[in-house]
């Protein structure tokens, strides 16, 4: 009698007779294993095969530093991408893509169109890549790229649909930035026109007041100086400067032929790789045009315009100094007049209001100039924008389902289920397999009679059988 069996009582026998138990309960293990494995294999081959086409868009910063030209503000990059995604995946655009590429032909015959649209949305993935290198400040965006993918049963159609997604993303992003810049310019122009009208009204009131009360002010004091003429001249010079600045901004920075050649090269690089013949031809064309442009430089018009602006600024400074001197003389002249104080106070109030509005107008004019430069950046595709880094690929291997993984998972599940069933049957039936189990029940063992029989053929499964003698 085994001492381990005697010491462990009702539990030790299970571990000692585990090979015998597994052999006798083998059907409880084999059948669940076979059934679940077959079910997993059938399910793996019954599921539709899907191919995934992927593309990457880079969030590219503006070409000029923000210290030179402020970037057009179109909102946070994450919010901007979310708005573009909602428009690209709208119901109308998805229906257009479904009909254009003849997607889901079998589902369209039986399912409603709304379910097919939702299925296409689920097959589309838009994810952001963040900057994991560290060093980003609290006010900067961490998103550096966008990954877009589309799953479909046909790899060619998956690539075509994803190419449409990429084109829509790039077009919507450029349109958003340009529209935001145009709105800013329009708002600032309206604000500048409103301030200009208010300044003109105050200057007319001030001129009328001086014309009506000039005799009363001249009784005991010298005539009041005409400050409105200074203000009109200053406003005229400032308006002339704004027109000159607009002309400077309209002066092309590069030859139109060079810009056209660069646009053709960029379009070719977006569609083909660098080794494509169209890209090589566009690059040679750009090099030739640049050489021609350097050989025939155009006259620098912006230098002349900036010189005129500097002269106007100097004249404005002189007029402002003269106006300040005239105001001081007027204040001194009417100090002793009996009627002058009230009139002078009213005139000074109007002048102070006009001065405050001029300061506001100067700030708005500066903001308007910045907004116009930002709009120019947006129109020339030089602002913060999305650019294509990895074009949509043609998948050559299925993305889903993972058939080996499904079959292996079914096999493992069947094996575990079979072992659990075999152990459950063994513990429920509790067969007597050794004398120690009889002694654990409180009955004495009178003797052990071995099972005698003909010698059987050696089987390959004898490894799993218990090596000790079998008992009746």
UniProtKB/TrEMBL annotation:
<dbReference type="GO" id="GO:0005886">
    <property type="term" value="C:plasma membrane"/>
</dbReference>
<dbReference type="InterPro" id="IPR050445">
    <property type="entry name" value="Bact_polysacc_biosynth/exp"/>
</dbReference>
<protein>
    <submittedName>
        <fullName>Uncharacterized protein involved in exopolysaccharide biosynthesis</fullName>
    </submittedName>
</protein>
<keyword id="KW-0472">Membrane</keyword>
<feature type="transmembrane region" description="Helical">
    <location>
        <begin position="28"/>
        <end position="51"/>
    </location>
</feature>
<feature type="transmembrane region" description="Helical">
    <location>
        <begin position="405"/>
        <end position="425"/>
    </location>
</feature>
<dbReference type="GO" id="GO:0004713">
    <property type="term" value="F:protein tyrosine kinase activity"/>
</dbReference>
<keyword id="KW-0812">Transmembrane</keyword>
<keyword id="KW-0175">Coiled coil</keyword>
<feature type="coiled-coil region">
    <location>
        <begin position="178"/>
        <end position="247"/>
    </location>
</feature>
<keyword id="KW-1133">Transmembrane helix</keyword>
């Amino acid at each position: 009698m085994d001492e381990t069996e005697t010491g462990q009582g009702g539990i030790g026998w299970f571990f000692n007779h585990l090979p015998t138990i597994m052999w006798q309960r083998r059907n409880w293990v084999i059948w669940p294993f076979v059934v679940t494995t077959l079910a997993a294999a059938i399910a793996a081959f019954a599921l539709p095969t899907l191919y995934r086409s992927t593309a990457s868009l880079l969030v590219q910063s503006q070409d000029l530093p923000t210290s030179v030209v402020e970037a057009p503000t179109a909102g946070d990059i994450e919010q901007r991408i979310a708005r573009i995604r909602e428009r690209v995946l709208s119901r109308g655009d998805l229906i257009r893509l479904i009909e254009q590429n003849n997607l889901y032909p079998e589902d369209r015959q039986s399912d409603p169109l709304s379910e097919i649209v939702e299925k296409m949305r689920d097959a589309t993935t838009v994810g952001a890549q963040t900057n994991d290198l560290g060093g980003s400040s609290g006010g900067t965006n961490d998103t550096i790229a966008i990954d877009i993918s589309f799953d479909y049963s046909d790899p060619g159609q998956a690539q075509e649909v994803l190419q449409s997604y990429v084109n829509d993303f790039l077009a919507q992003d450029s349109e958003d930035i340009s529209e935001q810049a145009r709105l800013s310019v329009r708002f600032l122009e309206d604000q500048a026109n409103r301030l200009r009208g208010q300044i003109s009204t105050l200057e007319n009131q001030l001129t009328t007041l001086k014309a009506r009360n000039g005799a009363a002010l001249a009784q005991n004091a010298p005539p009041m100086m005409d400050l409105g003429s200074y203000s009109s001249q200053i406003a005229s010079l400032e308006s002339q400067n704004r027109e000159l600045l607009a002309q400077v901004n309209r002066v092309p920075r590069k030859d139109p032929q060079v810009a056209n050649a660069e646009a053709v090269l960029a379009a070719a690089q977006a569609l083909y790789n660098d080794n494509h013949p169209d890209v090589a031809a566009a690059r040679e064309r750009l090099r030739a045009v640049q050489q021609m442009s350097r050989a025939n430089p155009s006259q620098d018009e912006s230098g002349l315009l900036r010189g005129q602006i500097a002269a106007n600024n100097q004249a404005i400074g002189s007029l402002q100094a003269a106006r300040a001197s005239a105001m001081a003389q007027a204040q001194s002249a009417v100090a002793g007049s009996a009627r002058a104080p009230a009139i002078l106070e009213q005139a000074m109030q109007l002048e102070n209001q006009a001065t405050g509005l001029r300061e506001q107008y100067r700030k708005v004019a500066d903001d308007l100039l910045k907004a116009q430069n930002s709009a120019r950046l947006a129109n020339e595709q030089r602002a913060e924008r999305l650019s294509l880094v990895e074009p949509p690929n043609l998948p050559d291997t299925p993305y889903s389902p993972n058939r080996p993984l499904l079959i292996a998972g079914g096999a493992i599940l069947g094996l575990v289920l079979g072992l659990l069933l075999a152990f459950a049957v063994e513990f429920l039936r509790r067969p007597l397999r050794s004398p120690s189990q009889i002694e654990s029940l409180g009955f004495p063992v009178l003797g052990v009679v071995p099972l005698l029989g003909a010698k059987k053929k050696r089987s390959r499964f004898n490894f799993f059988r218990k090596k000790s003698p079998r008992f009746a």
